[in-house]
Structures are given as C-alpha cells and as structure tokens.
Amino acid sequence: MEKKSPGTAAPKRTARAGAPERIARATQRDATISRLLAVARAGFAEHGYAAAATEEMVHAAGVTRGALYHHFGSKEGLFRAVLKQVHAEVAERVGAAAQAEPDDWEALLAGCRAFLSAANDPATQQIMLIDGPAVLGWSEWRQMDEEHSLHLLRDHLDLLAGQGKLRTRRTEPLAHLLSGAMNELALWVAQPGGSGDALAEATAALEETLNGLRA
C-alpha cells in the first residue's frame, strides 16, 4: 500500500453554494429589497424625507438596519431608489396613454393629461416633486427626469415638428419649457385650499397652451 509523504496533504476543495442555495439567497435578497422599498415609499410619502425615520422603516420591513445600508448605502440611497421607482411608474402611465391614441397630436395631449393625473397623487407629489429636487439636488433630479420622462416628451415633439404640426422646430427648449410647466401645474393643483376643479383647470390651461403651438 502506497504511503503519503508526511508533508503532503490532500488538496482542499473550495466550498461552493449549489444552484438551489444561490437561488434561495437571491430570492431572499429581492424580497428584502422589495419590502424596504414598499415601506420606505409609504414613509416618505406620509412624512416627507426629513421626518421619515429609518429605524421605523427597518422595523416595519422586518429587517435590520444593516440590511438597509447593505442594499442602499444610506437613507438617501434608499430614497433615490424609491424616487426612481416613482419616476418610472409615472413615465409608464404617460407612455401608455400616448400610445393608446392613433393620432400623434392627440397622443401628446393624452400624455400630458396622464402626467398631470399621475402627479395629482399626493404620494407622487411629495416624493417626486417636493423632496426629489431638495434631497438629491436639482442636477441629479433633472438627470433622473431626463432618463424617464423628458426624453419621451422631446422625442414626440421632434416627431410632430418633423410632420410640420408644430409652429416651432426648437423642440429642445420647448420640451424643458413644457416639462417645467407641468411640474409647476402639478404643485399648483396640490396647494392647500385649492379649488376642487384645480386638476381640470390645469389640464385645460395646458391644452390651450399646446394647441397654441399647433401649426
């Protein structure tokens, strides 16, 4: 029988998690992230960023504070993720409303109406329009808005200009002008003590402005 040399040891095999274990860990991670996002979104919407307590969030989500910092880095990182989620949902609603219209001009009006309607939600106003620019800074907020919504508006204005349906071909500044106007309109609709017909009035004013740009 062959003897092993005294100084020779059998090579150790590195323990690797099997596929079921990896899947279980990924599922657990995704569930933790989803719970944190849902709880944080409710907290930011109800209390605002400054008053929303991370300790209450992690307790409500059933996770540790370490889990929050592991997945999002900080309270601001968690808010950033929530804000991206809100931006994406609003953009999806706007896109769906526009695509439902066969006429390109009506698609513009439908998309703008959908934005005002979505932004009329108090949670969306608090997270996207009030706290978003204040917490992340105007530059980062605008970049996020560009990624989710502004480019859709600009591309559609380019389409209408190419069809000769706009009285101007300056679609880049026009996109920023309309985007800023709609954000401001959404905040105006939400002001305390406002008219119960504020959303309808804002929508009508926006449509009158857009129709004035129609060639």
From TrEMBL:
- Give yes or no: UniProt keyword Cell inner membrane: no
Location of region: Disordered: 1-25
Q: Where is the HTH tetR-type domain?
A: 30-90
Q: Looking at the Swiss-Prot or TrEMBL record, what is one Pfam family this protein matches?
A: TetR_C_41
Task: Extract the DNA-binding region annotation as residue ranges.
Answer: 53-72
Q: Which UniProt keywords apply?
A: DNA-binding, Transcription, Transcription regulation
Q: Determine the domain of life of the protein's source.
A: Bacteria
Question: What SUPFAM superfamilies does UniProt report for this protein, alphabetically?
Answer: Homeodomain-like (SSF46689)
Protein's name according to its UniProt entry: TetR/AcrR family transcriptional regulator
Q: From which source organism is this entry?
A: Massilia agri
